[in-house]
């Protein structure tokens, strides 16, 4: 709320050392009258409130959006691969008044990411908020190159002023809250829930029920008594509908090891027109060294198992959501040049060149008539009907294949499938993937495999179609585990991949 933070932050922040990892985010975090850097002052205040039991993993700011992550002092030695990044989604996707900041790292053998964002404001801007979230996923670069950060990290926690509103009149919301009615009416009108159910945003993310009052918009520093309880007062100045703007969601590729425990708000922190929220979860990590640190030579690894992928295929495809490749393998229309189409480019001018002889002109006209005749005959028999279908709705002819990505696959081998030519519903079949250096199969069950779908454009070029993530939980048992996972491209759902997998432990540790 661009106001000074309260002198005492301990009502909101845990200073007891009870938690191993703590992430704190704020938005509109610039307070007037402070002559020096607001960011430095705010980070200092949070560090002071957290106390000596914690050490900073990383901190990052984008204009008024701030994020800082702590671990307990004795756990700092188990933190590695710390990265941070930001994405602006304000005016022209350049202004940093809206956007997101992220910090990712490895804690023991588990990868974690915290993302704090401030999305577009106002009641009618739900679709812009969806677009902002997809833009952050598309442009935030942490982890593997070309892989969405929400797919790379095992657990991602997304917090912030997401700004989704309640699609109800102001008075209806107040009546529901003050009269103690069931919150189900408000849940049904919550834009974030609606957009997630429609798969327009935050696909694969989860959230606990918001069993607390809406977090926006309040009169600063003002309380009243309601049924014997001290409560904040909603601001009716501009009739902004009270809403759950401030949220915490999570996405886990090892859900058995990430258990949500609590989700609430802290109305006693009253310096802003928003109420801060908190989220608690339990995280199981494999503490021992689970990947062999040394390999036998640059191209020789210790094979400790095989991941069997069976009956892999794509279903429910919507590749048409993606921009077509400029070097598409679709054949050109017989009535136009392969270099241009009449709707986009005009024929090259012939002014300044000698005119053709009447004989060559005549031959050209005869050839064009013949071509047109053949084309009409072909269309009349129901052959090529592409001209009758708007270009943007034509199905693309693709040559899809998949790449398997994980830190326990040998880097010198191409872990890819065969290319399935000229189809948008490929069946890739079975694949056996060597696992190298995996010392603990308990560790393996906390990990995941990224299946990257690509389109082969030429012998040396391919374009991305999307990514899916398959958890390895329960895969070291005796039976294959079925999966049917969404393929995402820049935060949008484009298909599903289905199949089954299981891990076979190597009988004898071999070399590859």
Structure characterization notes:
The chain is α+β, with helices and mostly antiparallel strands and 512 residues long. Helix content is 16%, strand content 34%. It has 8 helices and 19 strands. The strands form 6 sheets. A 5-stranded mixed sheet has the order 4-5-6-7-10. The chain has a 4-stranded antiparallel sheet with strand order 15-13-19-18, with no helix packed on it. Strands 1-3-2 form a 3-stranded antiparallel sheet, covered by helices on one side. A hairpin with a 2-residue loop joins β18 and β19. The radius of gyration is 28 Å and the shape is globular. 34% of the residues are buried. About 13% of the residues have low confidence.
Mean pLDDT: 81
**CA-based gyration radius:** 28 Å
The quaternary organization reads as: single chain
**Content-based structural category:** alpha+beta
Strand content: 25-35%
Mind summarizing the main beta sheet? 5 strands, mixed
Q: What is the CA–CA distance across the termini?
A: 58 Å
The total strand number stands at: 19
Strand order of the largest sheet: 4-5-6-7-10
Helix content: 10-25%
SSE topology string? EHEEEEEHHEHHHEEEEEEHEEHEEEE
Query: Total helix count?
Result: 8
Which spans of ≥5 residues are poorly predicted at pLDDT below 50? 290-300, 320-361, 374-389
Identify the overall geometry.
Answer: globular
Give a brief rundown of this model.
The chain has 512 residues and is α+β, with helices and mostly antiparallel strands.
């Amino acid at each position: 709320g661009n106001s000074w933070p309260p002198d005492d932050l301990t009502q909101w922040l845990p200073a007891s050392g009870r938690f191993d990892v703590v992430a704190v985010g704020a938005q509109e975090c610039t307070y007037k009258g402070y002559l020096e850097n607001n960011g430095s002052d705010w980070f200092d205040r949070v560090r002071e409130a957290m106390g000596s039991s914690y050490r900073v993993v990383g901190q990052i700011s984008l204009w008024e959006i701030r994020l800082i992550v702590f671990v307990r002092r004795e756990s700092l030695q188990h933190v590695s691969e710390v990265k941070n990044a930001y994405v602006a989604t304000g005016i022209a996707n350049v202004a940093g008044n809206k956007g997101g900041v992220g910090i990712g790292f490895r804690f023991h053998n588990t990868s974690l990411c915290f993302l704090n964002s401030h999305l577009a404001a106002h009641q009618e801007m739900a679709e812009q908020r969806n677009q902002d979230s997809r833009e952050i996923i598309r442009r935030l670069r942490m982890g593997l190159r070309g892989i969405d950060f929400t797919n790379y990290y095992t657990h991602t926690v997304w917090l912030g002023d997401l700004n989704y509103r309640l699609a109800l009149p102001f008075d209806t919301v107040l009546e529901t809250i003050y009269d103690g009615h069931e919150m189900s009416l408000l849940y049904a009108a919550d834009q974030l829930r609606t957009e997630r159910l429609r798969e327009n945003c935050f696909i694969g993310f989860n959230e606990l029920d918001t069993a607390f009052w809406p977090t926006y918009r309040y009169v600063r520093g003002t309380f009243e008594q309601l049924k014997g309880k001290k409560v904040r007062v909603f601001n009716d100045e501009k009739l902004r509908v009270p809403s759950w703007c401030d949220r915490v969601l999570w996405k886990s590729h090892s859900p058995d090891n990430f258990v949500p425990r609590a989700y609430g708000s802290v109305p006693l922190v009253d310096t802003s027109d928003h109420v801060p929220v908190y989220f608690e979860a339990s995280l199981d990590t494999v503490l021992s060294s689970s990947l062999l640190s040394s390999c036998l030579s640059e191209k020789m690894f210790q094979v400790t198992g095989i991941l069997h992928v069976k009956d892999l295929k794509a279903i429910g495809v919507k590749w048409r959501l993606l921009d077509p490749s400029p070097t598409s393998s679709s054949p050109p229309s017989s009535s136009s040049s392969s270099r241009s189409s009449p709707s986009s480019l005009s024929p090259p001018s012939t002014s300044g060149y000698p005119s053709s002889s009447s004989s060559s002109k005549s031959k050209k006209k005869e050839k064009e008539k013949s071509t047109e005749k053949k084309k009409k005959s072909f269309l009349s028999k129901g052959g090529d009907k592409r001209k009758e279908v708007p270009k943007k709705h034509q199905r693309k002819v693709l040559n899809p294949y998949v790449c398997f990505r994980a830190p326990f696959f040998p880097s010198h081998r191409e872990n890819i499938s065969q290319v399935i030519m000229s189809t948008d519903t490929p069946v890739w079949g079975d694949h056996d993937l060597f696992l190298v250096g995996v010392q603990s199969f308990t560790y393996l069950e906390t990990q995941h495999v990224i299946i990257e779908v690509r389109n082969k454009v030429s012998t040396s070029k391919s374009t991305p179609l999307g990514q899916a993530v398959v958890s390895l939980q329960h895969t070291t048992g005796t039976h294959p585990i079925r999966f049917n996972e969404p393929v995402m491209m820049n935060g949008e759902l484009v298909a599903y991949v289905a199949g089954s997998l299981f891990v076979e432990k190597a009988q004898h540790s071999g070399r590859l």
